[in-house]
Amino acid sequence: MAIRVLAFGIAKDILGATQITVKLPPNATVKMLRQTLLKRYPRLLDLRAIAIAVNNEYARDEQVLSPQDEVALIPPVSGG
Predict the structure, then answer these.
(1) 2-7 and 71-74 as β-strands: parallel, antiparallel, unpaired?
(2) pLDDT tens column, 6-16
């Protein structure tokens, strides 16, 4: 299945786009998506942490994805 992933902040710079499509097997989980992204974009490992949101809510690794989900990579935020 194809999952559309939106990227924000430094994650957008690492991916080189604001949106990418990732191919995953049916019933893939957030953890599988995270592993695929880290393998494809190893610079993501440089980030302290990166959250994954599915349909506007932070997702747990065991959450199963569907092609209709809106998935977003949310990098750490610093402020001042």
Answers:
(1) parallel
(2) 999 999 999 99
